[in-house]
Amino acid sequence: MLGYDPGLVVSYNTRLTLLSLMAAILASVVALAFGRWATNSAMAAGAGIVLGLGVAAMHFIGMASIQLPGAFAWDRTLVFASVLIGCSFSAAAFVAFRHRGLKYPNGVAATLLTVAIAGLHFTAMGAVQITPDGAEPASVSGLPRLALASGIAAVMLAILGFAALALFADRMRRANRALRTSETALRISEERLALALDSGSDGLWDWDVATGKVWFSDRSQTMLGYEPAEIEGHVRSLIRLTHPDDIEQSRRQLADHIEGKTKIYECEQRVRNKSGAYTWVLSRGKIVARDATGAPLRIVGTQIDIAARKQAEQQIEYLALYDALTGLPNRTLFWDRLDREMVSAERRGHFFAVLACDLDRFKCVNDSMGHPAGDTLLRKVAERLTAAIREGDTVARLGGDEFAIVLRGLDHPQNSSTTAQQVIDAVKLPFDIEGRAVSVGISIGIALGPQDGCNPDQLFKNADIALYRAKAAGRSTYRYYEPEMDAAIAERNALELDLREAVRLGEFELYYQPIIRLENDMLSGFEALMRWRSPSRGLVSPGDFIPLAEEIGLVVQLGAWALKDACCEAAGWPGDLKVAVNASTVQFAELGLEHAVVTALAASGLPPQRLELEITESVLMSDTESAIRCLHRLRELGVHIALDDFGTGFSSLSYLRRFPFDKIKIDRSFIHEIGNADTAAIVRAIVGLAERLGASITAEGVEDEIQLAHARGEGFTEAQGYLLSKPLSARDALQYARASKDLVA
User: Fold this and answer.
1) Catalytic residue among 527, 612, 617, 700
2) Other beta carbons less than 10 A from residue 513's beta carbon
3) What is the pLDDT of residues 438-465, one digit of tens each?
4) CATH: 3.40.630.10, 3.30.450.20, 3.60.21.10, 3.10.450.30. Which one for 203-305?
5) What is the C-alpha to C-alpha distance for residues 605 and 607, in angstroms, rounded to an integer?
6) 700 noted as active-site residue
7) Nearby residues of 156 by Cβ (< 8 Å), 6 or more positions away
8) pLDDT of 309-329, one tens digit each?
9) Does pTM top 0.90 for this prediction?
C-alpha cells in the first residue's frame, strides 16, 4: 500500500493498520500449522486457502486504514477475482510443497506463493477508484506515510535479524545433532571392532613403513603367549622374534609384493613365542597407502597360527617316507636312496650292494601270539638291523616282514657278505616278546651294483630272485644273485602267455567286498576285485598278474571289462549302493579311462553318482596335469574319486591339495598297526586332514575287532576287510545287498 500514490495527502489509521497486520499473522500461523499436519492434498489445499484469505484480509483492512480527502469506489468483480487468485495459487503452493514427486518442490511452492500474493494485491489495487473531495480536509490524526514506511522497515529488519539468528541456531542444532549421531556411530563401530578383534582367531597388524612402528592386535600377541602390549610396537621386534632361517624368505616375499609381483604379501614363518620355542604362523598383508613416488607408506595384514597344520603336514610327510611301525625308511625312500647310490657309483666308480631280506617263521609268531606281539617283534628286528649296518647305509621296511638294505661305497663287492652274516647273526638271537623267548630267522638275497642291474628295478628284482634261492636253501642264510637264476624270467614269460590266453577266453571274474558305514554298521557299497581262475594255475592273485598286465598293455582291456561288468552288476543292487573300481596308471596314460567310464555307465544305466573310481598316487605322478584334468572331467559327470592306499607313496599331501578327492582310503599296513601310538597319531592327523578337505575316510584290511574299534575311535567313515566280510561272488554280493536292505526296512 505504501507504493500506491493517489496524488492526495495520505495517512493511515493506526488501529486498522495494526489489525491488518494481525490478520496476516493469524492467518499465516493457522495455515502453516494446518499445512504441516496435512495428510493429503485436500488438507494442504485447505491450508493454502486459509493463507489466501488471510492475505486478502490484510490487504483490504489495510486499504480501509487509508485516510485521504476523497472517497473509495470498489469494483466487486475485481475484488472477487483478487481473492480467488490469492486463494487458488496459495492452495496450489501448499499442495506442491508436500508433493515429493516433484524435482524441486520448494522452488515450485515459493513461486506459486509469490504469484498468489502479487496477483491478489495487484488485482485488488485495480479494483479501487478514489474520487477526490476538495471540501473534505486531509486528516492529520493518522500515521504519516514516511512514519509507517520507517516502522515497517524497522520491523522487517528485526524479523530478518531474528530469522537469521534462528537459521544459525537451527543449523548449529542440526550440526550438533549430526555430531552426536556420528560420535555414537563411531563409538558403536569401535566397540564392534574391539569385539571382533577379541573374538577372532586371526591376529592383526598395521605397519607404518616410514616410522617402522607396528600395531599388533591383542590376539596377535596372545597367540604367541604374550600379554597384550607386551611386544614392542616396532618392526625390529618382529625381526628379532622371527627364526633366522626365515628372515630372508620373508624379506624376499615382501619385496615381491612392494614391486607389484604379487597381489598380497604372504609368508609362512617361524616366530618365537614367550616360552622361547618357535611356532609356525602365516602372515598375510597388503599395501594400503603409497607416496607420490610409489613407495609404500602403510601395510596392514593378518597373522594366523598354523602350528597344528604344519604338524599335520610334517606327520603326513613323515608318513610318506618312513614306516610308521618301525621308524625305518619305507619303500618310497628306499627306492630314492637306491637310485641315488646308483648315480654315485657310476660317477665315482665304486661298488654297492642291495640286500632283499625276509623274516623266517614270522607268520607263525604273528598267528600264534597275535598282531601286537608281531608288531613288537618287527620293531625289535628293525633295531637289530639298524645296529648291524654302517652309518650311512640304509635299511628299510618294504611291508609286512620284508626289509631291504643298501650298502654304500664298498671297497670290494664281496664285503657285502660280512654285513649279511652280521644281520643273520643279529636276528637269530632270541627276542623277548611279552615275557617269552621268540626265535626267528632272516633270509637274504644280494645283488651287486652296478654289474647285476643297470637300473634300480632290475637290481632289486635280481636281489629278490637271490632271496628266493636263499629261502629254498634252508632259510637263515644269504645268496648272491647269479645269472642262472634267470629261470624266473622264463616263468614270467610263461605267465604272460597264459595271461594273454586268459584275456582271450575270458577267464576273469569279479568279486565284491562289502564296505560298511561305521556310524550305523550298514552297507555303503562294494569294492570290485578282479580274480583270474586259470585252468592250469588255479586261482591267481591279482598281485601276480595285474603288474604283468600293466607291463604288457593288457590292463586297459581288463580295466574296461571290469568297469562295464561292475556297473552292470551294481545296477541290479537295491537302493543307492556304490561300486568302487580300481583304475591303473596305464589306463590314464593311454587316455582310455574316461571313454571306458562313459561306455560302462551308458551300457549299464547305472547313475554316475553310484560309481567310485579308486586311484593310487602313482596315477598322478606319471602325468600330473593330464591326470588331474581327466579326474575333474569324470567328477563333473558325477563319478566319485577315491585316493587308494594313502600313506604308502611319496607325494600324497601335494595331490590332496590339488584335487578334491571324495574319499581317502588308508592303506591296510597302517590299519594293522593302528594300535601303535605313533601310527595312531599319524592316522589321526590324516583323519583330521580329510575332515577339513570334506572327504570321507575308509579303513582298508580290517581283520580283527581291535582294529575295528580303533577305526571307530579315530573317526573313520567306513571300513572293509575280512573281519566284516570276505570278497563275495556277484551272486552272493546281490544276496548280501538285499539282506542289508531288508534289515534296514
Assistant:
1) 700
2) 20
3) 889 999 999 998 888 889 999 999 998 8
4) 3.30.450.20
5) 6
6) yes
7) none
8) 888 888 888 878 899 899 999
9) no
